[in-house]
Structure formats: structure tokens, C-alpha cells
Amino acid sequence: MLAALAVLGDARDASALEPELTSDTAFQLYELRSPTGETVIGRRRLTTTLGVSGYDLIDTTNDPRSPQLTFRARLRYDADYGGDGSETAVTSFGRLVPGFDRGPVDLMYGYVEGRRFLRGWLGFRLGRQYVVDALGWWSFDGGLVAVTTPYFVKAEVFAGFEQRGGMPLSTPRFERDGVWRGDRTGYDQNLWPSFQPNAIAPAFGAAIESAGVSWIHGRLTYRRVYNTGPSNVTQFGTGSPPVAIDETRISQERIGYALDGTLGTMAGAKAGFAYDLYAQRMGNMFASVDGYVSKRVTLSADWDYYVPTFDGDSIWNFFLAMPMNDLALRGSWDMTDRITVASAVRGRLFQVDTATPPATRSPDAASGYVPDSPVTPLGGADVWARWRFGDGSLGARGAADVTSSGRRLGMDVHGERVLGARYLLRARAGAWRWEDDLREDRDATSFGYVLGAGYKLAERSSALAELQHDVNRLVGQRYRLMLWLTLAVNR
User: What is the pLDDT of residues 451-462, one digit of tens each?
Assistant: First the structure.
């Protein structure tokens, strides 16, 4: 990051470079207590990011079709000073939390990007980068090359290494679920063998999408990631070295497609899917339609299908994965230029149990038979309203979720105001009720409020403090203090 700052500083006088520095900092102090008042967990969390951007790294003309070169990077420090040092010590067998780091640092992204080279045909990114498409959020270190043709088609290929936890300046957020892995340096071979050793994960993929058409866009994408290095098969310490496999193998192989389009000012629609080629299972499907009834009224319908899929090394691939179907009907009405109301009705169907298979069929993988299971529905609704006035707003939200074995319902009210174009005031209060028929001793009503005040240092810079207080019979009194600092500096 310091080298990038030096380069940006040196280049500023030599070209039309536009540098920018941004930073966001949040500091939280809170404790989780028992109803008797005893502190169970104390937290002192500091999360801060530093972003560096440089635009127009090469001289450009006023021609919007001329080549463009930019640099972007953001570093994150996410510390928890409330954690005990013994929780990170590999010799502290009773307190060690594998993979826990009191002050992890990760490079969220850091890449050089080129656009419109070779008369607009060629684009590229080199470095740590995000990919967002029908397969979800993903991050890798490597290169991406894109070719945009004048025939409304764009093609991409990319290759590199998946960002994985335990590696330098990395986080496990973008790995597939189902495997607990990280840096095992210093661990005894029989200590937490279920905590898998990390290793580089080669990856490659390709995508093809539409380009240059404003009313419709489609993207087909394919991705494959490999696991390398050893993977412990023995999940519990036995006194002897754990059994492990050590060969290159598939971590994930997926393909997905997403399509969205608009019909002028009348309607819009989205649809897509993500198929897991390794598990041979449809992992996700979705579709939504928005109808623009008038300039002030929008009606929408959504459907989402989801079934968990996992990393190729995960034992969860051998268990049945229960699918969920989410349905929702939404509506939004701008009553005036200042008042907006919205509501939604939603439902979920998911399977929670398996039935006895017919006598003529066996529930095994060879037969391809998966037992039917009863469908348990869940329904809910919410209502939301907001009133904007001058430099402030007031809002309210009510929600309810009901199923055969439990209920949750409540309401929040909130407001904010800017005084003298500098001083920020915020407040929120709410009451929520939880009921669980399977654990009636856990039923509770919770009350809470948040009070905040801040100061705008500049157009994109501000400081804010918030105090949160929650109370219910299960946790007693709970407090949290949050301090926010947002800074942005550009030329």
C-alpha cells in the first residue's frame, strides 16, 4: 500500500492522475452477559479499512473511447481486543480456538485495471479482485482478460488462486462451505485434526455475456477450483498421525447463468441459476418480476430456490441436503415526493424430516432415490414507511414470521436529522417477541434502542458515535458503544 502511495505521488505531477484515499473505521465495545449480570463474553472490536485509488494512470484525451488505466486497493484490519491471548496459542489446549486471530489483516482487493485497449476490444485486471455473477461473490489472485466485440458479445477468461483463510493478507469468506481450514503452523499432528491445513487453490474460469444492449443483459459463467496439499481424513486424535490424502482434487466446479431485462417503463425481470457440476445438483435458482404500475407504484414477485452445496473435501457431501423455496409478493407506493410506504408477504417451504421409503426401493446413492419428506411452511409479512423532510427522515417497520412451531413479530421506529448542515442525529427504538414451541423456556420479549450523534467533517467525511441498549429476560441488560469515522480525500 505504501509503495502504491509513492507511485501515485510521483505520477501526479507527470500526468492527469486523479488519486483518492478513503478510510472507514468502526470501534465497538460491548459485553454479552447472563441474566445474573455475569460477563460471559467481552468484546473490543476495531474494524478499519484504507482504500487507495488512482485514475487516469496513462495520459488520456477527451475521447471517451480512449484507453484507460486505473489502480484500486483496499486493506482491512479487523481486530478483537476482547479475545484472550491464550485463544491463539497452540500450546493452550484448553483455550485454543483454531483459526482465531486477534488482529487479522486482509487485502480486500488490489488490482490494476485496463479498459478500451486495442481500439476498445481489450480489457484486463491483474491482482486480487472480486467476481460477482450468478455463482455469487468470489475473490481470487490472478489475471482476467476480457474481449468486447462490436457485435454485442463480451468474453472473459480468468485464472489464478482462490483467496483462502490462513494465507497472507487473506480471509476465508470466499471459500466453499463445509471445510474448516487454516494455518496449522506449530500445531501438534493430533491437535484438532478436523482443522484442515490450508494450501494454494488454483482456479480458472470463463464467462460470456451480452454487451452494448441497454434493455437486456445475460451472462453465462463457469468456474473450477482445485484443492492441493494434505487433507486430514481422521477427525479425532488417535495418538498416531492422522490419515490424510495429498493430491490435487476438485474443490468446486460450477456453472451459472443470469438474465435481466426491462420493458421500457412497464416492467423488469430477472432470472438465473447456479448448477454444481461436482455434486450434480442444482444449487440455486431465482426469478423476479417488477411491474411499474405507475410512476409511483411498483408491484413485484420473487421466487428463490436454494439447496446447500459444499467444498469437494467436505463430509457434508455425503448427507442429504434439504432444499428451500422462498416466495414473496412486494409492493411500493410513493404517496408523495416525501412519503413512501411498502409491504411484502412471503412464504418458505423447506423439508425438515425424511419419510420411510417404499419397501421396493432403498434410500441409497446407487438407486438415485432420495426419500420424500413432509413440507413445513413458514409465512411472514412486513410493512415499512418513511417520511422525508428537509435534512431528515422518520420511518417505521413492522414484521411477523409464523410457522407451526414458533413465531417472531415486532416493530422498529427510526429517525435521523442533520442540523446546520454539519451535526448528525440518529435514533431507533424497537420491541420484538420470540416464541419457540420446542423450547418454551426460551420465549422472550426484547426491548432496545440506539442513540447516535455525529459531525460531518467534509462532504464525504464524518464522525459518529452510537449507544445501543437491549434488554430481555434471557440476557438481562446488554450495551454496545460504536464509534464510526469515515474519511475521503481526493485531488
Answer: 999 999 988 899
| Residue 485 near residue 24 (C-beta atoms within 8 A) | yes
119 DSSP 8-state letter? H
Task: Check if the beta carbon of residue 92 is closer than 8 Å to that of residue 107.
Answer: no
Q: What is the signed CA dihedral for 413, 418, 423, 428, rounded to 10 degrees?
A: 0
What pLDDT digit, counting tens, does each position of 339-349 carry? Answer: 999 999 999 98
| CA R_g for the chain | 26
258/136 Cα distance (integer angstroms): 11
Q: Is the pLDDT of residue 373 over 90?
A: no
Report the distance separating Cα 6 and Cα 14, nearest Å.
13
Would you say residue 313 has pLDDT above 50?
A: yes
Q: Are strands 122-133 and 267-276 parallel, antiparallel or unpaired?
A: unpaired
Q: In this structure, are residues 171 and 160 in contact, taking their beta carbons and an 8 Å threshold?
A: no
Closest C-alpha to 370, from 333, 295, 320, 412: 320
Which residues face 243 on adjacent strands? none
Q: What grid cell was written down for 237?
A: 486424535
Q: Read out DSSP for 209-263?
A: EE-S-SSEEEEEEEEEEEE-SEEE---S--SSPPPEEES-EEEEEEEEEEEEEEE
> Distance between CA atoms of 25 and 23, rounded to whole angstroms?
7
List the one residue out of 6, 461, 203, 475 whose CA is nearest residue 484.
461
Euclidean distance between CA atoms 465 and 227, whole angstroms: 44
Structure confidence at residue 355 (pLDDT): 42
Q: What integer pLDDT is reported at residue 346 of this predicted model?
A: 95
Share the mean pLDDT of the chain.
88
